[in-house]
Amino acid sequence: MRYVQLRAFHYVAVCGGFSRAAETLFLTQPAISDQVRKLEEEYDVLLFNRHKKQVTLTAQGERLLEITHRMFDNEQQANDLLSESRALRAGTLRIIADAAHHLLHVLAAFRAKYPGVQVSVRAGNTETVIAGLYAYEADMGVLGEIPESSDFQILKLNSSPIIAFVAHNHPLASAKRLALADIVSHPLVLRERGSKTRFKLEALAAEMRVDLKPAIEAEGREAVREIVASGAGVGFVTRAEFGYDGRLKPIQIDAPEVLMDEALICLRERASGKLVKAFWDLAMSLPG
To answer: Between the N and C ends of the chain, which has fewer C-beta atoms within 10 Å?
Structure first.
């Protein structure tokens, strides 16, 4: 087994194909294909299913990818350690967040302190944030529920109650506070399953014996906001995430307050990385 063979396998897996892997590694596609083929032949295994121009991992390939993720992440950490003087002048910090606005003050301070570092932020829900961290697709995550796993290092950012909201011209727009039963008598616009906001709202509805059925199910907080703004129904969000939007009116739920804890998390095994540690230390030092 050679390093170049594992590297070829790893990049084909994460890039989704031989051509993309070759572009990423600045090699030719035949060279990448040859390295993967030699690895499969040497151990008499099939790592990829090849159908027409698409490749997918076999079960054995999935298991090997878990190992190479750790292997190449360790390599990156070693490189960061050995090039410490350059680590905070360049590089990319990848963040996956269910609500990026919880990090805005940290992002601004981080960019001011480390202008050479590129920060990538993409959206997700609680499930995709955790999955992305485990798959090494992100360095840090922000999510609306503090995970119980000891695999993570956790920094609580804030807590905020869940509220309802409607378009400014909705029949409920004049109400400041309503019982959940009165709210759900109107069409509801809910987040996708896997959203912690939806999970907690469903738990409250079950406790109060209220039937919670979405008229519209939308993926992502912004999608819900735009659909509600069109007048299509009632949405739910935390008070902190509601912010200000002249098109919308907030409604407090007349029920025991349901709080969403927003936390910054990373895998403990990656917490010592220069970029992760720098961002973490800065987040700790700033007021919420």
So the answer is: N
